[in-house]
Write a structure and sequence with these properties.
This is Glycosyltransferase family 29 (Sialyltransferase). The chain has a single domain, classed as Alpha-Beta Complex (sialyltransferase cstii, chain A), CATH 3.90.1480. It is built from ten helices and seven strands.
Length: 204
């Protein structure tokens, strides 16, 4: 798809055209089969840990949005997949250097040309976003969408690092829980329920 068609599809919310740029969800889930996966949230509390070695030891590391990594000791160094719901500067994308970018946001107008045409690009279906939004009764975070997606696969283990449901706020900004459009209490309860249902999900 050339740039003109891409920006037209984005402006007109032609999701079918944009989905044509994405790898199939089935391919994404197949890549997770049998793997140990670390999903790294952006809670400030993670910076006080020494989880880095455990993160880097997993088969696949997924980070979220601006993916702050203040220290290898707390955050590790690898990024295999980057799950995005925000615009990302080229310098940040180069710093994070993901092997695959997943656009999770329903806000397609934020999706950039370079990301959409990168190797292995994935566009999360609007239907999946809306289903989780209904379940939580609030817009889901990028992290919640990734948990929901990853647990549909045949992965061996999904370990969450840096998920305290905004108790320590985010390393990516200074907003409080009241200033973001998510229900962190609902997400915490949902994750606890998922842990009871699926022993592969671990909250580090």
């Amino acid at each position: 798809m050339n740039k003109l068609r891409f920006y037209a599809a984005r402006t007109l919310r032609d999701d079918a055209a944009l989905q044509a740029l994405s790898v199939p969800q089935s391919d994404l889930l197949a890549e997770l089969a049998g793997k140990t996966v670390a999903l790294i949230g952006n809670a400030r509390s993670l910076a006080e840990t020494r989880h880095g070695a455990a993160i880097d030891a997993t088969d696949l590391v997924i980070r979220i949005n601006r993916a702050p990594m203040p220290s290898p000791e707390s955050h590790g160094t690898r990024t295999d997949w980057l799950a995005l719901a925000v615009r990302l500067a080229d310098a940040d994308l180069a710093r994070i250097a993901p092997r695959r970018v997943l656009w999770m946001s329903p806000k397609r107008k934020r999706l950039g040309w370079r990301i959409a045409h990168g190797d292995g690009f994935y566009l999360h279906p609007l239907a999946d976003y809306l289903a989780l939004k209904d379940r939580l009764a609030a817009p889901p975070t990028t992290g919640a969408m990734m948990i929901d997606l990853a647990l549909r696969s045949g992965l061996a283990r999904l370990t969450l690092h840096g998920f305290d449901f905004f108790a320590s706020q985010s390393l990516s900004g200074s907003r409080t829980a009241d200033q973001v459009p998510h229900d962190f209490g609902a997400e915490a309860a949902w994750v606890a329920d998922m842990q009871r249902r699926d022993g592969r999900l671990i909250l580090a």
